[in-house]
Write a structure and sequence with these properties.
The chain has one domain: Pnp Oxidase, Chain A, CATH 2.30.110.10. By secondary structure, it is an alpha+beta fold. The chain has helices at about 15-25, 60-65, 100-110, 140-145; strands at about 10-15, 30-35, 40-45, 45-50, 50-55, 70-80, 85-95, 120-135. It contains 4 helices and 8 strands. InterPro entries: Pyridox_Oxase-rel, Split_barrel_FMN-bd.
């Protein structure tokens, strides 16, 4: 089993549990899809639901690409300036639109409110087939360059 601390100053691979702890703490993630043969990235707010990620979307490029035949990637990251650590988690897998009325009604109980106004009636679930993450110390030189916006709490 790999070490779960990054005291040595090298990136530490996170366990699946640690990855999901970080995903649950994040409020914004990035959805990576392929649009007309090229990668594209969309910021999304989301909710974690039983080992999956659910987001809402309007019809358009993001939705069409996410529901296409090519798997998607979802990423969250953050840092804690006080501890001098940063982390990144990537989930890869298929995205599907919630189709049954039961799934849609269940998703309504998730705290998932679109930031942008408009019709966001498409609920999409990402079911990861791969979950990876790492945590690492931020170098002192880089820490002087990182704005102290909102440090994330790190799970123990």
């Amino acid at each position: 089993m790999p070490p779960t601390t990054d005291d040595a100053g090298v990136p530490v691979e996170l366990s699946s549990r640690e990855c999901w702890d970080y995903v649950r703490q994040a409020s914004v993630g990035r959805l990576a899809v392929v649009v007309e043969g090229a990668p594209d990235i969309f910021p999304i707010n989301f909710a974690v639901d039983h080992g999956t990620v659910v987001f809402r979307s309007a019809a358009g490029t993001k939705l069409a690409a996410a529901l296409g035949d090519i798997p998607v990637a979802f990423e969250v990251d953050g840092y804690d300036d006080g501890l001098g650590r940063a982390w990144s988690v990537v989930l890869k897998g298929a995205a599907s639109q919630l189709g049954s009325i039961e799934d849609v009604l269940d998703s309504e109980t998730l705290e998932l409110f679109p930031w942008q106004s408009g019709e966001k009636n498409h609920f999409v679930r990402i079911e990861p087939t791969e979950t990876t993450g790492r945590r690492f110390r931020i170098s002192d030189a880089a820490r002087r360059q990182v704005p102290s916006a909102q440090p994330q709490d790190l799970p123990e």
